[in-house]
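User: Okay, second chain of the day. Same drill as before: sequence in, structure tokens out.
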Amino acid sequence: MRIVLIEKAHRGVRFVIHFDEGADILLTREVIIDFGLRKNDEIDDARLREIKEVQSYHDAYAAAIRLLNYRMRTKKEISQRLEKKTFPTPIVERVIERLSGLGLLDDSVYAEAYISDKGASKPIGKRELERRLREKGLSKDTISDALAMVGSDEKQFELAAAAAETKIRSLARFTGRQKQEKLIAFLLRRGFEWGVVKKVVETITKGDLDEAVL
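Assistant: Same drill. Structure tokens below.
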């Protein structure tokens, strides 16, 4: 088939490539330049497939960059978002590989940043952190390495105490036992281990746990 006209699309920054046999396609300026496309060029089916594949890769890469500009993502998150946009799996894999090579996509860095952010803004326990990071598609080894930051009993106590100190302000109307029960439920929901929860609640409420609570 032969290119009969290259014109700018009415909307956006793409160009319409018109062929004498119909089946017009939209391309970015970069792809047109990469392939040196001009009016009257003859394009066979194999060449056309290559052009479309390169354009798809450019589009997928640009979409991934937009997602990363908004916030950090894991490899799984980027893959899922691109696949949802119907980009072919081989294209998605190439984009992930390139972003990783450029240091723009790193699950280890993501995990450490996520844990650090949660520790500062809304402390949660190691168990809950592990669950959330698994949902984001991080590997077991990556999660294990990242959790080393907050895995010690001392650090878990510190985080749980910070969460409890904030929560207890809203529990002033409750009795000692009720207050303990609500603090326990709150900290367990936050993913803290029972040993840590017990120690924190006893410290915060300045008393041993009621036997009925245990």
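The beta strands are 3-8, 15-19, 25-27.

User: Thanks, on to the next one.
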